[in-house]
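Suppose you are handed a protein chain with no further information: no name, no annotation, nothing but its sequence. What can you learn? This example shows the usual starting point.
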Amino acid sequence: MRLHRPALTLLSLALLAHSAHALDLNEAYTKARQNDPDWLAARNNYLAGRQESAIGLGGLLPTVVASGSVSQNEFEPASVTPPATAATTSEYDATQWMVKATQPLFRADSWFDYQRARASSSQAEAAYRSQEQELALRVSQAYFSVLRAQETLAYAESEEAAYGRQLDQAQQRFDVGLIAITDVLEARASFDGARANRISAEANLNSAQENLAVIIGEGPGKLVPLKPDAPMVKPVPADPEAWVGLARDRNPDLIAARKNYETARAASRQATSGFLPTVDLYASYSDLDRDSTSPALTQQNGTTTSVGLEANWVVFAGGRTYAASKQASYRAAAAQDVAVGTEKQVVNATRTAFLNVSADSYRVEARKQAVASSEASLEATQAGYEVGTRNIVDVLLAQRNTYAAKRDYAAARYDYVINSLRLKASSGQLSEVDIRELNGWLDPNASVVSAPDKTVAPPDEPAPAPVKKKR
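A reasonable first move is to predict its three-dimensional structure. Written in structure tokens, the prediction is:
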């Protein structure tokens, strides 16, 4: 079926408009909150954990129990006093219902269970906050991993094209007898290596895109790249101990570990309270109705109201209470050890992240200068090759160093971004606000470095073999 030109033009414009939209980091984060299965599970676990406090409080509040029964009965007295001559067996229907309200007065187990539940709810909230930071970090890492892979692929394509041109030039020089066959072989080896690197870069890009798609729930498509002049400065405050102090106070993993210790300690007290008695205040009301012809049975019909105290004390339970209290105390000690270990890990991670960000701020500038120096060196080497003072090995090495410097510069920029996020996460400050701020570092008008137009051998076709010069 042929399309008329106006229809074809409209279709082309529609496809162009659809493909022109690029996904930015803020949109990716929003999609992740809606679709990432790990985040959805974490949110539901948090909502479930919030109920712990209400459940624990219920053990301290009054309980009201209503019960009732309807039965068919047959009554036969054990003996009959003369001169009774009537049948002594009675069949009757009975209806009974009762309402009993109980208010705990002294229940140490319920009190410590409430303390355990409150700590558990706080632990769930801290774990939720940790998962929220982890989601922001995962989305950012996946997003910038795609950008890094795109830039790596672009440099790999550019490098392959450059080596392809070098191979063509070497072949031409060899054909006219200006260079030896070894120069052509060197150029071809470099070209083949660059092609292999480009294939690997394509695979890495596909893998990075798949990882991002799993988090956001759909194919990422085109992404908004990082600005060339994104501000990459030292962290503020510039004192690592200030960041460590923030981490000790606000790191959600550390808070969760501390709350877990409080939970275990309350559980230990709850288990120990099994040695203590329980005292409850109760009030009950019951109504009994026997539909019988026997006066001895009907005389018991009526209502009963009771108010009183009820005490229970488990004197011996086969050693179970003692064993449970010892088990809970060991678990509390283990939870304390975990909290101490978590604090050490958090402090170490915070200091490491601070040092990495500080080093990255200098490394980015150094890598940028290295790119300029390597490009100048390449230009000088190529000029020397043209006049015969440098050989092709020098040119190939200079090209390799130039593209390695460009890749290192790109990697340094992305490392700075991710390490900055890790520093904020370690100190408990990473939030959606930081995602929006980082989104401002992106530029929809920027583009990933692209390779120059150059026809090179496709992956499934070998590069043309050098032709020996005819003598």
